[in-house]
């Protein structure tokens, strides 16, 4: 599992004294229920950040009072199930007939949300005002932002008495130069930056110095599934994700064309929606894969479909985490993934619970698929290992890591403030 590391020193002294101090801080933190607030772009939409935030909020609700503040609302209910213990607070209502649509501020562009953030056009001056008002009266002990622009809101308007944490669901290098410069300026006032992988945390520590700010990695929660695991007998390969260039479904189809020529009974199912659909359909026809490779459309939850497969494949150029890999492993399915930055190598143990292949290498991807198709014993062994390995992403160990983080941040706050001021 990813190790939680930091740019900020722990309490000084020998190891036992340091561990005792952390245990005391954790005990003091847990003496009463705390209020934890998440700031989310749109809790009513479909997306990996929405799903993982819902998962973490539900797990933390066992011991804390949790709310999710959604910047906008475009439908009556969320698409994902939300734990009833978690309070959902929408700020700007964009449903037809909403009075917010007639507010003059809704027609004005956002001024506080960074213009370099790709979702800037989805924000308005009304969003700015609503977020600021909510944060100024927020009584939470911990406030967690979940995307760069929202983290800027939190840095600018979040109450200083609360622990303010910037979650990064995208990779550092996925942000443009202008946005990174703005984040570096605002993240200096945060208590912590949390990335999904240790590899990304190292990039932040190296390229965005943040004195007094803990930079740590904590992976997403991927809860156990309600479907029986795959029996590994179907001749189905599955893949899932946005139909977008970075997911490289074109590369997967190219690799599958090689597989299909040698294993005519096997089929490929790709789940997801996106702008690349027409191009992928044309490529399926061009490669002569009609009837063998199918675009299945979006499917939520995806686990029931993964359980019908014997292999799950990801051909991405980059992944900030790799949610579908863990979801497949939860279903007892071995995974084959490109060894892309940053997540897959921290999820998949090559040769044990899956395979890692070079990025942008269709022949290597095809060879890995063919190897597992040809060796039933190897495939079933990897499936069992994948099922065991997925327990790393159970709710309990992840929430424990967050509680340790919260307690340590509270304990070291004065020390970190001093370090920040001296730098």
Q: What report would you give on this structure?
A:
- The structure is a single chain.
- The protein is α/β, with parallel strands linked by helices and 423 residues long.
- It has two domains: 15-221 and 394-417, Glycogen Phosphorylase B (Rossmann fold), CATH 3.40.50; 236-393, 3-Layer(aba) Sandwich (Rossmann fold).
- 39% of the residues lie in helices and 16% in strands.
- The protein is built from 15 helices and 13 strands.
- The chain has helices at residues 15-29, 48-60, 125-136, 148-157, 177-187, 198-207, 249-262, 277-286, 303-306, 323-330, 344-347, 362-374, 376-389, 395-411, 413-422; strands at 35-40, 65-73, 87-93, 142-145, 163-168, 192-195, 214-217, 236-240, 267-271, 293-297, 311-314, 335-338, 354-357.
- It has a seven-stranded parallel beta sheet with strand order 3-2-1-4-5-6-7, with helices on both faces.
- Strand 1, helix 2 (48-60) and strand 2 form a beta-alpha-beta unit.
- The longest helix is centred in the C-terminal third of the chain and has 17 residues, at 395-411.
- The protein is globular and about 65 Å long.
- The two termini are 32 Å apart.
- 44% of the residues are buried.
- Residues 1-13 have low confidence and may be disordered.
What are the defining features of this structure?
alpha/beta, 6-stranded parallel β-sheet, Rossmann fold, 2 domains, 39% helix, 423 residues, single chain
Q: How is the secondary structure organized here?
A:
Blueprint: H1 15-29, E1 35-40, H2 48-60, E2 65-73, E3 87-93, H3 125-136, E4 142-145, H4 148-157, E5 163-168, H5 177-187, E6 192-195, H6 198-207, E7 214-217, E8 236-240, H7 249-262, E9 267-271, H8 277-286, E10 293-297, H9 303-306, E11 311-314, H10 323-330, E12 335-338, H11 344-347, E13 354-357, H12 362-374, H13 376-389, H14 395-411, H15 413-422
Parallel strand pairs: 1-2, 1-4, 2-3, 4-5, 5-6, 6-7, 8-9, 8-11, 9-10, 11-12, 12-13
Helix pairs in contact: 1-14, 2-14, 4-5, 7-12, 10-13
């Amino acid at each position: 599992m990813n190790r939680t590391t930091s740019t900020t020193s722990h309490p000084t002294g020998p190891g036992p004294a340091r561990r005792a101090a952390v245990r005391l801080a954790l005990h003091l933190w847990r003496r009463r229920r705390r209020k934890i607030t998440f700031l989310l772009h749109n809790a009513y939409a479909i997306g990996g950040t929405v799903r993982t935030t819902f998962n973490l909020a539900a797990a933390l609700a066992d011991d804390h009072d949790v709310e999710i503040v959604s910047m906008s609302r475009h439908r009556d209910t969320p698409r994902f199930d939300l734990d009833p213990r978690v309070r959902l607070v929408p700020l700007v209502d964009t449903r037809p007939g909403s009075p917010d649509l007639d507010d003059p501020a809704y027609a004005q562009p956002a001024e506080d949300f960074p213009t370099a953030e790709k979702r800037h056009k989805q924000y308005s001056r009304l969003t700015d005002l609503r977020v600021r008002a909510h944060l100024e009266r927020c009584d939470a002990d911990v406030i967690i932002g979940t995307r760069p622009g929202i983290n800027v809101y939190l840095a600018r308007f979040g109450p200083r008495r609360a622990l303010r944490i910037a979650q990064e669901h995208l990779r550092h290098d996925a942000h443009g130069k202008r946005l990174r410069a703005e984040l570096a300026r605002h993240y200096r006032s945060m208590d912590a930056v949390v990335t999904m992988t240790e590899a990304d945390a190292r990039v932040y520590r190296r390229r965005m110095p943040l004195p007094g700010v803990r930079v740590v990695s904590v992976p997403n929660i991927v809860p156990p599934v309600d479907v029986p695991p795959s029996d590994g007998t179907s001749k189905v390969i599955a893949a899932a994700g946005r139909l977008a260039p970075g997911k490289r479904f074109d590369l997967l189809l190219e690799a599958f064309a090689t597989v299909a020529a040698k294993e005519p009974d096997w089929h490929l199912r790709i789940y997801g929606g996106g702008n690349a659909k027409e191009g992928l359909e044309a490529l399926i026809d061009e490669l002569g894969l009609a009837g063998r490779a199918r675009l299945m459309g979006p499917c939520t939850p995806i686990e029931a479909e993964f359980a019908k497969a014997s292999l799950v494949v990801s051909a991405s150029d980059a992944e900030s985490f790799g949610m579908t890999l863990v979801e497949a492993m939860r279903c007892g399915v071995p995974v084959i993934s490109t060894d892309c930055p940053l997540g897959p190598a921290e999820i998949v143990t090559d040769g044990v619970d899956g395979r890692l292949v070079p990025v942008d290498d269709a022949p290597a991807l095809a060879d890995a698929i063919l190897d597992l198709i040809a060796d039933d014993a190897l495939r079933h062994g990897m499936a069992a290992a994948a099922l065991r390995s997925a327990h790393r992403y159970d709710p309990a160990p992840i929430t424990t890591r967050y509680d340790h983080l919260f307690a340590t941040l509270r304990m070291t706050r004065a020390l970190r403030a001093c370090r920040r001021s001296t730098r």
